[in-house]
Amino acid sequence: MLFTTETLLSQDSWWKEKKYKTEEKQRKFNNCKKVLVDISDGLMYSNVNYLIPHFQNEVYLSIQNNEKGYYNREQSSYIIESFFTTYPVSSFKWKNSSRSERYAFALGKYKYKKGGFINTFTISVSLKYIDDLWQIDQIIVN
Asked: What's the pTM?
């Protein structure tokens, strides 16, 4: 049996599929899901390059209350790479999400190994719909 990424993702419980009145709206929210999947892949593979294309010019970051504030793309990339180095991922999975015309939000669990133990962070990501693109507005790690 052959599974494509799209088939598997459509079964994810974190994204509630909806029917939209127009194809344009359907495409808009399919793009939103794709951005969240890219972010998930970036977190799962500790690869900030999955996230960078979706950064706004400034992104609000709150990483374990150590790094907190608005950062440009380059600074955001550096901070997230540092997070990946400090907390090597064991697994990442979105738990739930919501979306509206201009905003989207997803909440997930980031498991990492430190000192021989598996620990968990909750990661929330907010997206904003700007110029026909879903862009990362903020990332919060607790």
From this structure: 0.88
How many angstroms separate the CA atoms of 39 and 45, rounded?
10
Per-residue model confidence as pLDDT tens digits over 3-49 = 444 444 444 789 988 888 899 999 999 999 999 999 999 999 999 99
Instruction: Quote the CA–CA distance of 31 and 46 in Å, as a whole number.
Output: 22
Can you give the C-alpha Rg of the chain in angstroms? Answer: 15
Please name each of the domains of the chain with its CATH number.
Answer: 21-141 (3.10.450.50)
At 108, is the secondary structure helix, strand, or coil?
strand
What is each CA distance from 68 to 9, 76, 101, 123, in whole angstroms?
32, 11, 27, 14
Residue for token digits 């620990």?
119
